[in-house]
Design a protein that fits this description.
CATH superfamily: Metallo-dependent phosphatases
Number of domains: 1
Oligomer: single chain
Shape: globular
Largest sheet: 9 strands, mixed
Strand content: 15-25%
Number of helices: 11
Number of strands: 17
CATH class: Alpha Beta
Order of helices and strands: HEHHHEHEHEHEEHEHEEEEEEEEEHHE
Helix content: 25-40%
CATH topology: Purple Acid Phosphatase, chain A, domain 2
Radius of gyration: 19 Å
Distance between the termini: 20 Å
Length: 382
């Protein structure tokens, strides 16, 4: 972890650099079409891990708002340049939103809806919302969450307010491509689906995922991205269920193209490996991007719970109509959430600025490369 005496200075340095860099970021003008980052008809996609506002995160957002409301923008400022410069940026909003000051952390989360505005200001275009906490406040929690994301202009996938919404595919524009975003969770912590609303939360089912992916492809999606809330908490290695489902999904076809083009994993609280499976990139787990002090199964504080990665993938258009959009560059960027300062930190930038974070950065790198992704071309980005 960062030495406590250096944390605030580190984050302030990162934020000052971020503020200067963001003056020309594409998301400063909401609604303006995103330019292609590749300049050749392709696009870049970035994705990040769980946004999990514990009570300490809620308190920090209130402090950052000067005691009036909640401001989540400063927490993300250190990674805003990376997120906002992508053609398409996807997050994972793990919790549901409360209202009128009724906000709670673990174990049943109800987060301030201002979190949605913070995500939008950072440059996120869409978020997966299917998680084990999706039903922490029943159907009302889902409704408030999706309403707030809609107001902020952030698209969403994985939960729904109505059956028609559940059946619709979330499609986002990235450069010249239409990107379908699908999202599913392994469970809802034992909370039953709301009466009469079996469609409220997408649960992981291989047949359902493939049917949705193929429907999206037939409807014109050039790229199909699947977010999966899965895996074993506090385990660096993907579990057998993750490995089995990843192999099945990446082996499936829609016509002469893969059914799925990219898999983004969340839930485990720790960074997990990246791997190219059947020619398709899989991130088994990105870790927690925003979270308070995390405690593992033994009840001990575990710094891995505040470590994560951002995945960045450059897609190139096919050489023929109807062909596959291929990933021509795969990268990851290691992150740390500084729980003392309440800020997300790009660890590579922090190292450049003299922070003592090489051990943390290298541990994340080793986990990410642990299933051979480096041999398949994955690199650590800036």
């Amino acid at each position: 972890m960062i030495a406590r005496s250096r944390q605030v200075a580190l984050v302030l340095t990162v934020l000052l650099a971020a503020g200067a860099a963001c003056q020309a970021d594409r998301h400063e003008s909401p609604g303006r079409p995103a330019p292609s980052a590749t300049g050749s008809g392709g696009f870049t996609l970035v994705a990040s891990g769980d946004v999990l506002p514990h009570s300490s995160i809620i308190d920090r957002a209130r402090f950052d708002a000067g005691g009036q409301g909640y401001d989540f923008r400063p927490m993300f400022a250190g990674v805003k340049p990376l997120v906002s410069r992508a053609d398409l940026a996807l997050c994972h909003m793990e919790t549901v939103y409360g209202e009128y000051g009724d906000y709670t952390g673990y174990p049943a989360f109800k987060s301030p809806p201002e979190a949605a505005a913070g995500l939008a200001a950072t440059g996120y275009d869409g978020c997966s919302t299917a998680s084990n906490h999706s039903l922490d406040d029943g159907a009302d929690g889902i409704r408030r969450t999706l309403d707030a994301l809609d107001r902020a202009g952030v698209r969403h996938a994985g939960t729904a307010r109505a059956e028609a919404e559940a059946r619709a595919v979330t499609v986002l524009r990235a450069g010249q491509a239409q990107v379908a975003h699908l999202a599913y969770t392994y469970d809802t912590n034992g909370y039953p689906l709301p009466p009469g609303q079996p469609w409220a939360v997408n649960l992981i089912d291989e047949g359902r995922i493939l049917a949705d992916a193929r429907a999206a492809r037939r409807a014109g999606a050039d790229v199909v991205v699947v977010s999966l809330h899965w895996g074993t908490e506090w385990q660096d290695e993907p579990d057998e269920r993750q490995l089995t489902l990843a192999r099945s999904l990446t082996a499936a076809r829609t016509g002469d193209r893969p059914a799925v083009d990219l898999i983004l994993g969340t839930h485990a609280h720790v960074p997990q490996a990246y791997e190219k499976v059947n020619g398709t990139w899989v991130i088994y787990g990105m870790g927690d991007q925003i979270a308070g002090q995390m405690y593992n199964h033994e009840g001990s504080p575990d710094p891995r719970g505040n470590q994560s990665t951002i995945g960045r993938f450059t897609f190139a258009p096919p050489g023929r109509p109807g062909g596959r959009w291929k990933v021509t560059k795969a990268e990851f960027v290691p992150q740390l959430f500084d729980i003392d300062a309440g800020r997300a930190v790009n660890l590579n930038q922090a190292l450049e600025q003299g922070a003592d974070v090489q051990g943390v950065r290298d541990r994340i790198r080793d986990v990410v490369f642990s299933r051979g992704a480096q041999q398949d071309g994955l690199v650590m980005g800036e």
